[in-house]
Design brief:
Elements (H helix, E strand, L loop, with lengths): L9 H6 L9 H8 L5 H8 L3 H5 L12 E4 L7 E6 L4 E6 L7 E3 L2 E2 L2 E4 L4 E3 L6 E3 L9 E5 L10 E4 L5 E6 L4 E6 L5 E7 L2 E6 L5 E5 L5 E4 L10 E7 L2 E10 L8 E10 L8 E5 L5 E5 L4 E5 L10 E6 L10 E6 L4 E5 L6 E6 L12
Parallel strand pairs: 5-26, 21-23
Antiparallel strand pairs: 1-2, 1-26, 2-3, 4-6, 6-7, 7-8, 9-10, 10-11, 11-12, 13-14, 14-15, 15-16, 17-18, 18-19, 19-20, 21-22, 23-24, 24-25
Pfam families: Beta-prop_KIB1-4, F-box
Protein name: F-box family protein
InterPro entries: F-box-like_dom_sf, F-box_dom, KIB1-4_b-propeller
Length: 360
């Protein structure tokens, strides 16, 4: 007897739905690992109660920084550009109104105004910073993770001879006299304050806790237009020198970057700068004053060993303003398509509320 093959009518097939809430938890967590845009993460958790229960904010995959558009005075909205999603994200943040925002950072921006504070635009957490008796301080650098780590922020007095260091986690101030009177770009990294001496181009490293300092000689004499950044990258301290690229066409000048790694054999005060052509799977994001390092994830399509940097309209190099990326391996720079021509700084978005004790 010949077998008869049966099937469900097409109309019945159309009526069969999929209950997405029945997906196993382990599969949901595998899907979550592929979500590298913070908004996709939020949408994922909003699907249903089971999907939300299967994840927590601490499961958020590592994020690429957003570029903050220069903030308009009086505006209660902040505009960010996401490299990953190629979208502009607008966030209502009334606490940022009439304030000058400074980064780059993980989660928090420094909001210079009344009051001075650290501000997370996504969670609306705000950490007020009271300068006390320190008259007219201005921020020169902040650690890459001012709330999540135990590092310092550095404020200078107008005479550039006195500095105050603030540790947001413990709300502690530390006042010191600087070992030099003329400083450029600086960074607080792992309890050390790194400064470039303009006269010698050497690096002066100041131990904030004990007040001592030492000098690391510069590997080469710099041009007056060179800019120096100090960035912690995957546990290493980098010295990044941004220079005008003399090999680029005169009609379209651009920048090149020489990167040095702090080589320490024994004590840190015996360290020296060693040039490197690779930072591995790290990506550097620089604004006009400071920088941060992010680990590249293969699933995002962004490769390591690159520098992303901002060129402002009044840049002395006369490079077309906007966003650029520099390939450390081959020394080539190219412009990145970006809707902002007045990008200001970087923010790594973070949904975790991590206010230190003593703050609301």
């Amino acid at each position: 007897m010949e077998a008869i093959e049966t099937s469900v009518p097409l109309e019945s097939q159309k009526r069969v739905g999929v209950d997405w809430s029945d997906l196993p938890v382990d599969l949901l967590q595998e899907i979550l690992k592929k979500l590298h845009d913070i908004f996709d993460f939020v949408y994922f958790r909003a699907i249903c109660k089971k999907w939300r229960a299967a994840t927590s904010i601490s499961d958020l995959p590592p994020q690429l920084p957003w570029l903050l558009q220069e903030h308009r005075s009086g505006s209660e909205s902040l505009c960010f550009y996401s490299l990953l999603s190629d979208k502009i994200r607008t966030i209502h943040c009334p606490m940022a109104c009439n304030k000058h925002l400074i980064g780059p950072s993980h989660g928090y921006l420094y909001a210079e105004g009344l009051p001075h504070s650290l501000l997370n635009p996504l969670t609306k957490d705000e950490v007020t910073i009271e300068p006390g008796s320190f008259v007219c301080p201005f921020l020169v650098c902040m650690g890459p993770d001012p709330i999540g780590s135990n590092d310092y922020m550095a404020f200078l007095h107008n005479d550039l001879g006195t500095a105050r260091f603030y540790r947001p986690r413990s709300c502690e101030w530390n006042s010191v006299a600087l070992p030099l009177n003329d400083v450029g770009r600086e960074s607080c990294l792992k309890g050390m304050y790194y400064m470039k001496d303009h006269e010698t181009d050497n690096t002066v490293v100041f131990n904030i806790a004990c007040g001592s300092s030492f000098v690391i000689p510069s590997p080469k004499i710099l041009d007056s237009s060179d800019q120096v950044y100090f960035v912690e990258s995957s546990g290493k301290i980098l010295r990044i020198v941004k220079s005008v690229d003399l090999s680029s066409p005169v009609s379209t000048p651009n920048y090149c970057f020489n990167i040095y790694q702090l080589d320490v054999e024994g004590e840190i005060d015996q360290g020296r700068w060693v040039k490197t052509n690779s930072i591995g799977n790290q990506i550097l994001f620089l604004d006009f004053h400071n920088g941060i390092s992010i680990t590249a994830s293969p699933s995002t399509g962004f490769r390591g060993n690159y520098v992303y940097y901002i060129v402002s309209p009044d840049d002395e190099c006369f490079v077309s303003c906007g966003l650029y990326k520099y390939n450390i391996s081959d020394g080539q720079a190219e412009k990145v398509l970006c809707p902002f021509n007045n990008g200001w700084t970087w923010l790594v978005p973070n949904l975790v509320s991590s206010l230190p004790a003593g703050h609301n």
